[in-house]
Amino acid sequence: MAIQHLSTVLCEQARRDAQGRLTLAGVFTSIEASCFPAHREQTTIYVALRGQPGDPFAIALRLPDGREECACSGEVERPPDDQFGTIPREFQVIVDASNIGFDRAGVGAVLVQSGETLLHTQEFVVFASPGSEAEAETAERLAGHV
Q: What domains appear along the chain, each with residue ranges and CATH number?
């Protein structure tokens, strides 16, 4: 069985309580900036996957300018009670993507892969606040004036 993507969420924080339950706080799908370059202090990427022990996975954050940040990769681990490594396992990956800088407005994405196979793309939009200096700069750039 190939690795499967279950979900991807962008948020400010991911916390586990004493019972092991996960809380995602500050979920978002877009980022608003009053000027560029913009800076986002708290960003966390949450990804849930299902796979066989040994299946590879990789997670990256592609920014609107094409740069990739916060790369994370690994393999599905074998649970201790699975002597032969045959039981599919659901697991969660939490990537700290704090202090990311955005040079311009546009569409970015979280990319989830297994080997060379792209499993999921979770897009997000970085946009200039209405009426801001960044909005005027973005309009000029898009019009080909800058």
A: 4-143 (2.60.40)
